[in-house]
Amino acid sequence: MWEIRTMSRKLLDKRVLLTHFQKPLALRDCPSRDLGVGLGLLNSIRIPLKFWDLTWRCFHGKLCVRDNLKCRSSEERGCPREECGGLLESMDHFLLQCPFNTEVYNRVGASIHWPGLAGLSYAEWAYGAFRGLGGRDRCTLFLVSLVVRYHTWNARCLVSTQRKILPVDEVVRNILGDLVKVRSLEYERLGTGRASLLWRGFSFSVP
Ligand SMILES: [Zn+2]
């Protein structure tokens, strides 16, 4: 126990990855141009602390989806959501295919006027390698995507640990609530001129 308290964050992460994960740290579908941009986004001071950990894990392909974890037989690697009928819970499944999440993306995308949210690729979710910015700021798109993922991940964990199913409506409301908070903190911190430039192209409020 004393070891954990004195261990550096980097070392602790390395131990966790070696002990619990099937594969070592690796980036997937990440050409070097995306890596540079992605690392810049990952280290942006605009990412609030509460979202950072999950963002880091996703960047490195290390969300605790069942297919990533050791000590599970093939039957135990299925998505915890009943509607998925035991389909393998890979990073792709969680980010791109799980129907609960895609419904959330559709609803949030429509609410914030970013319909592209529903069709993001793995590289866009993980590294912020957005193919089209649509006149928006790349880091803001990344920020919005990681707030969405934070809530879909928490909703997924409630299913796997407590068998609790949050309605899509509630998850969407929580996402919009956090987006409003993140945006207003940036308005306070950066001033209206700079913040409105960074948040251009988005329009939303808490329902
Ligand atoms: Zn699923």
From TrEMBL:
Pfam families: zf-RVT
InterPro entries, alphabetized: RVT-Znf (IPR026960)
Domain Reverse transcriptase zinc-binding positions: 46-104
Protein name: Reverse transcriptase zinc-binding domain-containing protein
Annotated source species: Engystomops pustulosus
